[in-house]
Write a structure and sequence with these properties.
By secondary structure, the protein is an alpha+beta fold. 38% of the residues lie in helices and 12% in strands. The protein contains 15 helices and 12 strands. It has helices at 48-63, 68-79, 131-149, 194-211, 252-268, 277-289, 291-295, 339-343, 352-357, 364-376, 378-381, 388-394, 402-415, 422-432, 437-446; strands at residues 83-86, 101-108, 115-120, 158-162, 177-181, 186-187, 221-225, 229-233, 305-308, 317-319, 325-328, 335-338. The mean pLDDT is 94. The structure holds zinc ion (2 copies). One zinc ion binds at residues 8, 10, 13, 15, 31, 33-34. It comes from Bionectria ochroleuca. This is Aminoglycoside phosphotransferase domain-containing protein. InterPro entries: AGP_Transferase, Aminoglycoside_PTrfase, AN1-like_Znf, Kinase-like_dom_sf.
Amino acid sequence: MDSRFFTCSVSDCDNPSVRTGGCNICQRYLCATHVSPPFHTCDQTLDDKAYVAQIVAEINRLRSQINDMAVCRLVTSLSGKTCTIQHSDKVGQGALMGGSNYHARVLFGDGSSPWLLRVPRVASYEVGLPESLVEHLVRSEYATLTFLENTKVPAPRAYGYGIRGRDKEDHGVGVSFLLMEHLPGEAWTGEGTREQKAKVLSGLASILNEVAQHPFTKAGSLVPHASTLSRVSAVASDRFLALTHDGPFDDAESYYASFAEQYLALICGRQLYTEYPVDAYLVYRFLKDNVSQLASRDANGSGEFFLKHVDDKGDHILIDENFNITGIIDWEMARTVPRSEAFGPSLVTADMNDLCAGKVCLTENDQILARELGKLSPQLADCSVDEKARRFFWGLALEPDWADAKPLAVAILTVFGVDQRWEEWREHALKRYGGDGRLQRLLRGCS
Ligand SMILES: [Zn+2]
Ligand SMILES: [Zn+2]
């Protein structure tokens, strides 16, 4: 069977579902055929009230799977203290629900600092996390936090984890989960004066410099390991959670190529970019052919990899009222990556509007972070040369419509050195890749 997250929920349909394309309204996973009218007609444009109702319903579905007593038993065995679990179905500001995880507070009878119970959003059809990926993400985040405990990176302490249905790792909680420290601080929104932003980025530079003191020999994601606490294993998906775990990798080129190849296979298998498969295929084929442009940036330091947060949009940074960093959270997609990717321009210093609009540029924040890194290590400042890695991983951003994806495709071509209009490049690319069997099949499917 092909690699799939879910099989289409329509009876008698054996197609893989479109990744991250499940519908919370009719509560189904749908394949490329059945995701659109006339087979699927749910109106996805929700007003605020309907959106809140949908999230509350999801939280209730998830809560019905969580055995609070089993959580408390485990917490008591780990801490020696009695506790209660405080759930919340708040949506919006102050909510404990993140993009891919639900959280509940673990409150202790003696009033000591609460813990967090962190549970991947397996009850959301839209988030669409298959069990196999959830297992890897939970194990990987636990191992990453365990690793960080022995560094100066401020991250929550991990107290335990559980994997549903896995003998020694199950704990009877009913879902896969992580138990962790609840760090103080507010998520950084990127707001603030120039000085305040510079202060956060200066704090971040110190943290990145600490990360640079801990090189790895492979690219991948950490998983728990008996004797060494953690080891590098397969990459835990990408930040869109659209990929299956793959790897680990000994060199930068095969690491980057595996991402592009997974996208190519998923486009051909009608699991991603089902509305514009030929254009998406051409873009990822181009990226796969150009991974040496990414890998060659680390020619001097090849074979060295460093832990990268990956989902680093800014709200992963917790700050106090004086803009001091109190912690870095949400490590489930972390992976060890080549030096230039680890310390070069990433999402935290991107202008998200420009990124999504396809504007190619190093931002003011990119430059501030590079300057702060330069004060600590010239080698780290040198990583801030171009946007290639940021554009490579932002890709076509799972945009459902070509109109929104096209500026991203053009930006990718630009940053990788193509000086042609899209239409012109596309025509040449169709000729250049004319012998590619998968492309031929896609073209036949579209005719
Ligand atoms: Zn639906
Ligand atoms: Zn179907």
